[in-house]
Specification:
alpha+beta; Immunoglobulin-like; three-stranded antiparallel sheet; 2 helices; 3 strands; about 15% helix; Phytocyanin_dom; Cupredoxin
Amino acid sequence: NVYKVTGDDFNSCNVPSNNSLPLVTGNDKINLAAAGNKWYICGFNDHCHQGMKLKITVLDGPAPAPAPNAASTLLPKRPISR
């Protein structure tokens, strides 16, 4: 029984009482597309207080590289001499 919780509930091992459905199949998928912190705890007995909890930090993806200037990529930086 894994619950997605807030940071405060994560720190205090507070299982949600708002009818939040736990992840129970063992094959549950979590969307990590948005940057930020995600907190999950085990809601069974005292497992969270014994350390069965997980904090995931999702970072922003790198910014795309700027498109190269076509003219500057086709010409050498200095004239070629022989």
